Prior knowledge:
Elements: E1 3-7, H1 14-23, E2 24-28, H2 35-42, E3 46-51, H3 58-63, E4 69-72, H4 82-88, E5 91-93, H5 100-115, H6 118-126, E6 145-149, H7 153-164, E7 168-172, E8 183-185, H8 188-194, E9 197-200, H9 214-220, E10 225-228, H10 237-245, E11 251-254, H11 265-268, E12 273-275, H12 284-302
Parallel strand pairs: 1-2, 1-3, 3-4, 4-5, 6-7, 6-9, 7-8, 9-10, 10-11, 11-12
Helix pairs in contact: 1-12, 5-7, 8-9
2-keto-D-gluconic acid binds near residues 11 and 278.
Amino acid sequence: xxxxxxxxxxxxxxxxxxxxxxNFRVIRLWKERDPEATIQENKKNIVAVVxxxxxxxxxxxxxxxxxxxxxxxxxxVDNIPMDVARARGIAVTNTPDVLTDDTANVGLSLVLALARxxxxxxxxxxxxxxxxxxxxxGVSLTGKKxxxxxxxxxxxxxxxxxxxxxMDVVYHGxxxxxxQPYEYYEDLVEMAKAVDFLVxxxxxxxxxxxxxxxxxxxALGPKGFLVNIARGSVVNEEDLLIILxxxxxxxxxxxxxxxxxxxxxxxxxxxxxxxxxxxxxxTFETRTEMGQLVVRNLLAHFDGEPLLTPYQ
Length: 312
Ligand code: 8YV
């Protein structure tokens, strides 16, 4: 008899879904009319959960007595209560590396879009404003300073790209990385004061919640830009709205939000922001590789083989 896998979010592409269905009895929770009742009916059989960004709540984990593995289709695991999973001996896997380049490219796109008014410029042409005069000038990237908060895999990939644009890269993180060529700032406010672009690449979760508050944004200043490709939770959205409204920073490029897919209404009417619907990893190639990792981790687990990408 096939084992039961519960998928709580619709992200796997058809080819990976097919492999999953060949090997498991699959419950697509988003298709169920009464998800609660489905979980109750199947709770003893569900041995695997697949998610992405939606929370795998403690309540859900506690409701599944035979859960063995959570395969997260994301590099971030801030949607999973790791302490609860660890205490129960539930394996957790994520999808690192395969999404690094694409996510870094979105970070770079936001830096470019803000500096050179790319999105604004597109709108300017479409609505016919060009007939009345040129778009206001942008700022050059050459020689500007970018501060990366979270110099992990994605942060390093962003740094490499920004260097290629002749930008000076510095970083902030939990600790100094001796093998990195970039200047380290222990204090985020100090780094924000020093940079033209603050690019958030750190992991989400309690450790980084509201890391970027009013003080940090104020330090970034009226000529500074914020780019967030990390998690919405890293930025205090209230503080960001206030500072943007008062032109306390030059602009913000946001791929992530605190309560996705909800985007604060106030942002929608601001000219100095570029808003994306969390597309860091959203290419066919990368989502395929992420899905393959999810499926291979599940198969490895139930075949008694080592996991490909266990989250430690
Ligand atoms: C999303 C991400 O998970 O990997 C992460 O942590 O935020 C993204 O890759 C993805 O967009 C949803 O599958």
